[in-house]
Amino acid sequence: MKCPFDGSVNIEKVSHRWRSLSGDAEAKDELAPPDVVEARYFAVLAVIAAGFWVLVSGSVLLGLLVAAGGLVWGVIMSREVAETVAARNRWAHEVICLTCLHRWVP
């Protein structure tokens, strides 16, 4: 495989390069894998349950609002988790040219 930018064959997977660098290397932070957002589904379920509890206890509008807010929060969080997992998978397949330092996914 050759670098599409300069034609060099001096390439390596970003993940391998990142692991091979010492802890105090400058490039260690640049080549680090993207962070994955933690899913907090129990918190979302607790908010939805609290909304239903408020709904049943008499305040219908407030209960619906809290439950809907919990659902929206759950959808947004699921999308963020999916995006960060996709970014981590892309990083795992990414290649770097050690001559010109361009990164790409073959």
Molecular structure report:
- With 106 residues, this protein is mainly alpha-helical.
- The chain is built from four helices and three strands, in the order βααααββ.
- It has helices spanning 14-20, 27-30, 41-56, 60-93, and strands spanning 11-13, 95-97, 103-104.
- The protein has a three-stranded antiparallel beta sheet with strand order 1-2-3.
- A hairpin with a 5-residue loop joins β2 and β3 (103-104).
- α3 runs antiparallel to α4.
- The longest helix has 34 residues, at 60-93.
- It is rod-shaped, with a radius of gyration of 22 Å.
- The mean pLDDT is 91.
The run of helices and strands is EHHHHEE
Structural class: mainly alpha
Tally the beta strands: 3
Mean pLDDT: 91
Q: How do the strands of the widest beta sheet line up side by side? A: 1-2-3
Number of helices: 4
- The rounded Rg comes to 22 Å
User: Which band does the percent of strand residues land in?
Assistant: 5-15%
**Helical content band:** 55-70%
Largest sheet: 3 strands, antiparallel
Shape by Cα distribution:
rod-shaped
Q: Which consecutive residue ranges, at least 5 long each, have pLDDT under 50?
A: none
Q: Tell me the span between the first and last alpha carbons.
A: 9 Å
Outline the secondary-structure elements.
Blueprint: E1 11-13, H1 14-20, H2 27-30, H3 41-56, H4 60-93, E2 95-97, E3 103-104
Antiparallel strand pairs: 1-2, 2-3
List keywords for this structure.
106 residues, 8% strand, 4 helices, mainly alpha, 3 strands, single chain
Q: Summarize this, please?
A:
The chain contains 4 helices and 3 strands. The chain is mainly alpha-helical and 106 residues long.
